[in-house]
Amino acid sequence: xxxxxESGGGLVQAGxxxxxxxxxxxSIFSISDMGWYRQAPGKQRELVADITRGGSTNxxxxxxxxxxxxxxxxxxxxxxxxxxxxxxxxxxxxxNADAWSVITRTSRRYWGQGTQVxxxx
Length: 121
Hints:
- By secondary structure, the protein is mainly β.
- Helices cover 0% and strands 61% of the residues.
- It has strands at 2-7, 10-13, 18-26, 29-39, 46-51, 57-59, 67-72, 77-82, 91-101, 106-111, 115-120.
- Strands 2, 4, 5, 6, 9, 10 and 11 form a 7-stranded mixed sheet that branches. Strands 1-3-8-7 form a 4-stranded antiparallel sheet, with no helix packed on it.
- Strand 7 (67-72) and strand 8 (77-82) form a beta hairpin.
- The radius of gyration is 14 Å and the shape is elongated.
């Protein structure tokens, strides 16, 4: 099993910046893709950004040019640098990782507990 621990959420003023991190740990595993999703009240969960192990990235349209995703493979950690934050970015942000277990020989997507990001106007 894989556990994802997120940190960095909080309250920030519009136009400000925030950096989220998510570290994966647990039993023997190999992580491929990692990413961030968000879900605000009354809305469906949407992709924020994802990144492959090789470093290829993809961003949701609403955050392109403002957010940057990166990862540290040595520490199984993914980051999300959020700049020029807007009130509409207010949401619960969830980290995810696709991991393959060498014990069960299966792969699945794991999710973090979510961290609240609130942007005031």
